Amino acid sequence: MMEGQQRPTPGGALPPHPTLERYYGRDDERPRFVRRLFDSAARDYDRIEGPMALGWGRRYRSEALRRAGLSPGMKVLDVAIGTGLVAREAAQLAGDGKVVGLDPSFGMLLEACRQLGVAGVLGLGEQLPIRDCGFDFLSMGYALRHLGDLTAAFREFFRVLRPGGTVCVLELTRPTNRFGAGLIRFYLRRVVPAFTRLRTRNVDAELLMRYFWDTIENCVSPASILQALDTAGFIDVQRVLSIGLFSEYTGRKPGAGDGSSRPGRREGGGNFFVRTIAR
Is residue 131 a part of any domain in this protein? Predict the structure, then answer.
């Protein structure tokens, strides 16, 4: 089953991709499988990510957060913080002490707290151990594919944001162009795992890189993700696509004054080709 073919279950759940049987036999085995890979790869992850992103990662993450409206003084929850790649840029924009990170992987969370000194919470995106209406901005970087249920996660994101708060989900999307898709598939499915094996000698880190591509290739369509955000209650839902690969899904929790005109998203500074796709 390829991108866009996954459908909500009768109970309304929306898995980000179908069961990937080459990695785990049943859906209930997936969380433990993914957690093991991330725990094992945590110490090597930053050494892999830099070359994998071809040096664009940090700059792009900062620009994406700016486009979504992150500004000084906002309180930020970074869901699936990993080693802190998105949280680092969020802290630069929002200010010291404004970012809280959450992750189901203890190994990843430990790395983020060690490197950034942020407050860390062990937990799942679909069951946030966070009080209602506590944050101005919620970010998630390249982890949507590792959730169990987008419907439940987006409802939780909505719950913990204050009225007027913003959600910003960064994700990789399989290019629609056949040549581009083939090129990215070869790079992420073959080159990156081989580089990871040579650089880290960590078999779980190599497997994680292979798993990344398979989750990208089988991920639900961007339209399904936008619909799930809308269903969760977010307004002004849209997607910004950069260089045909990097998707930024954003939405806003309704707040006071929504009947009046509001400032729009900040556009990019010309450093990336960006295209806005609204619902």
Answer: yes
Number of folded domains in the chain?
A: 1
- The encoded tokens of residue 40 equal 């094992």
pLDDT digits (tens, 9 = 90+) for 93-110: 999 899 999 999 999 999
In the structure, what pLDDT confidence band is assigned to residue 9 with cuts at 50, 70 and 90? low
**Using an 8 Å Cβ cutoff, are 17 and 220 in contact?**
yes
Determine contact, residues 158/96, Cβ cutoff 8 Å.
Answer: no
Range of the domain at 96: 53-173+221-254+269-278
Task: State pTM to two decimals.
Answer: 0.89
What does the alpha-carbon distance between residue 188 and residue 212 come to, in Å, rounded to a whole number?
Answer: 8
Question: Does residue 195 lie in a domain region?
Answer: no
What mean pLDDT is predicted for residues 234-250? 95
CA–CA separation, 258 and 230 (whole Å): 16
Question: Measured between alpha carbons, how far is 116 from 114 in angstroms, rounded to an integer?
Answer: 6
> Between the CA of residue 229 and those of 139, 153, 160, 237, what are the distances in Å?
14, 10, 14, 7
